[in-house]
Amino acid sequence: MKEEKFAKYSDQELLDKRKNLKTQLIINAVLIGFLIGISIYGAVKNGFTFFTLFPLVFVFFLIKNKTDSRELENEIKSRNLKF
């Protein structure tokens, strides 16, 4: 379904989205590291509780967002666009 969404974009719009996606991936990587660090700190300090595992739920959602980037890359490759 999302591939159809990317199919509607022009070539230039796809390349612009890819440029924005790179920034988003860097921000996601920093957030994932920060949330995992919070979980590890909470586990060491207080043991395993709900609030220790709660940040890991957000990590799951951030990783799930990566599928959008793969679909965008596949659409760019299918059109043989240069980066």
Based on the model shown, name its key terms.
mainly alpha; transmembrane; transmembrane helix; membrane; FUSC family protein
Task: Walk me through what this model shows.
This protein is mostly helical. The protein has a domain at 28-77. Helix content is 84%, strand content 0%. It has four helices and no strands. It has helices at residues 2-7, 11-46, 50-64, 66-78. Helix 2 (11-46) packs antiparallel against helix 3 (50-64) and helix 2 (11-46) packs antiparallel against helix 4 (66-78). It starts with a helix and ends in a 5-residue tail after the last helix. The model has no long low-confidence stretch (mean pLDDT 85). The chain crosses the membrane at residues 21-41, 47-63. Keywords: Membrane, Transmembrane, Transmembrane helix. This is FUSC family protein.
Strand and helix map with partners:
Blueprint: H1 2-7, H2 11-46, H3 50-64, H4 66-78
Helix pairs in contact: 2-3, 2-4
Keywords: Membrane, Transmembrane, Transmembrane helix
Protein name: FUSC family protein
Transmembrane segments: 21-41, 47-63
Rounded radius of gyration (Å): 17 Å
Number of strands: 0
How does the major sheet shape up? none
Low confidence ranges: none
Percent range of helical residues: over 70%
User: What string gives the helices and strands in order?
Assistant: HHHH
Query: How many helices in DSSP terms?
Result: 4
